[in-house]
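so im writing up the methods section and need the VOC family protein record in one place, dumping it here so i stop losing it
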Amino acid sequence: MFQGLRTIVYPVNDLARAKAWYSALLNQEPYFDEPFYVGYNVGGYELGLDPDGSAASPGGPTTYWGVADAHAAFARLLELGVPAHEAIQDVGSGILLGSVLDPFGNVVGIIQNPHFALPPAS
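--- predicted struct ---
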């Protein structure tokens, strides 16, 4: 079901300042830049900045596991007896994400992102 770790999203309270800082740190501009989310492709993984994340994320950053089918993966996680944290939602451009709380209270996110691919192996 899981394809591997894909994305970590940091909650930020000042998106413009966070974007400037991470752009300088990474020496690149984001590949996805909207008022509701900023995303960077860093070595085949995504670093996301979420201006609304601080209220939604109980423990800080949320790590998202890549999946081919977000709805099926979410259903499987619920079958394992854990509660939903955020239902599957389309956040734009065909990207679907959602999350559950594991039995220990950690947020486990899943993401189906048709625009994101790992670089070819060298």
